[in-house]
Amino acid sequence: QVQLVESGGGLVQAGDSLRLSCAASGRTLSSYTMGWFRQVPGKEREFVARITWSGGNSYYADSVKGRFTISTDNAKNTVYLQMNSLKPEDTAVYYCAARLLSTYEYRHWGQGTQVTVSS
């Protein structure tokens, strides 16, 4: 079982930066791919980025490519999402999630952290 706790959300202005953190706990974390998703009320949850604990395989949604960076700190069992050049359309609840390397379904989710970008 994997437990995920996000932090770092807040209210910022367009153009600002913010870093989200996801503290992970559980056994064999190296067996998981870690992802960030976001959701706006009334819309489906949207994939943002994913990475493996080795850090060698990261992938981004086109909407955030070049502005967001996903990374891991294996010593702290923490996944980060560095968000630069934020836009009002980035406003959402951001969720950290985990799936086993051999699967496609994210079965473990954090509680979410709100990011609000004002224009």
The secondary-structure class comes to mainly beta
Largest sheet, described in full? 7 strands, mixed
Low-confidence stretches: none
Mean pLDDT: 95
Number of strands: 11
- Treating each run of at least 4 consecutive H or I residues as one helix, how many helices? 0
> Percent helix among the residues?
under 10%
Q: Judging from the principal axes of the Cα atoms, what is the shape?
A: globular
N-C termini distance: 40 Å
What is the element string, with H for helices and E for strands? EEEEEEEEEEE
Rg computed from alpha carbons, rounded to a whole number of angstroms: 13 Å
Strand content: over 45%
Could you outline the blueprint of secondary structure elements for this entry?
Elements lengths: L1 E6 L2 E4 L4 E9 L5 E8 L6 E7 L5 E3 L7 E6 L4 E6 L8 E9 L7 E2 L3 E6 L1
Parallel strand pairs: 2-11
Antiparallel strand pairs: 1-3, 3-8, 4-5, 4-9, 5-6, 7-8, 9-10, 9-11
Notes on the protein architecture:
- The protein has 119 residues and is mainly β.
- The protein contains no helices and 11 strands.
- The protein has strands spanning 2-7, 10-13, 18-26, 32-39, 46-52, 58-60, 68-73, 78-83, 92-100, 108-109, 113-118.
- A hairpin with a 5-residue loop joins strand 5 and strand 6 (58-60).
- The radius of gyration is 13 Å and the shape is globular.
- The model has no long low-confidence stretch (mean pLDDT 95).
